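Entry 14. Structure prediction run on the chain below.
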Amino acid sequence: MSFADTLLTEDLEPLRQRLLYHPLWIGIENGTLEVERLRIFALQDWWLVREAYRLDALAIAAAPDLEVQELLLSKLVPKVGGYKLLLRFGEALGLAQADFAAVEPLAGCMALTNFFYWMLAYGSPGEKLASVSASEDIFIQICARVGPALMRNYGLNQDQVEFFSAHDVLEAYVSPVDQALLARFDTPEERQRITRAVRLSHEFELLFYDTVLSVVIEKPAPSSSQG
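Output returned:
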C-alpha cells in the first residue's frame, strides 16, 4: 500500500506507475543510462537532500501540538547523516566535493524544492505532511530496485550505493509515523487537500526526473592530429 491510499479521493496509481517506471530508473535497471547522467542526478538530488533538514524543521515548527512535533521528530532522526551517503555515491561516480559545493539547480529540481516550501508555508496540516511524505514513500520504492541495479550494471559496491539501500531501513521508521499522523486528518475536506498534495508532489517529482533526462550531455571535442 502506498502513502495515504486509504484517504485519497481519486486514483493516483497511474501517476505512481509513471514515477516508479520512469525512463531514468529503467535506464539504470537496463544499464543503458550514461554515467554522466547519473552524475547529474546525484548533483541535483544533493540540492534537494541538503534542504531536507530545513524542510523537516519547518514542518516541526508548524505542527499544531507537542505530540505531532514528537512524531515528526521521530521521522527526522533516522534521516540524519543521509546526505553523506549521497556524497559517497557521487564520489563513486567520479564527482568531487567541489562539484557538490558548486551545484546549481535545474528547473525541475528547483520546482520540486519550491513546491515543498510552498506547502510547508501555506498548506493545511494534512497537506504539509502529504507533500513531503508522498515523495519519500515513492522514492523508497524506487530505491529498492535502483540500488541492486547500480551494483549489477555499473560496478558499484554496497557501500557506494548505501544511499539507496538505506531507504529500506528508513521505511520501517517513517511509515508507522505517517500512518499515525494521517489518522488525525481524516475529514472530507482534508482528504481532498491531501489528495491534491500527493498528486502535485508526484507531478513535480516527474518534472524533476524529466529534467535530469533532458539535459544535453556535451561530448568532448575530438582531438585533432597533426601530420
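The longest helix spans residues 125-154.
Filed with the rest of this week's runs.
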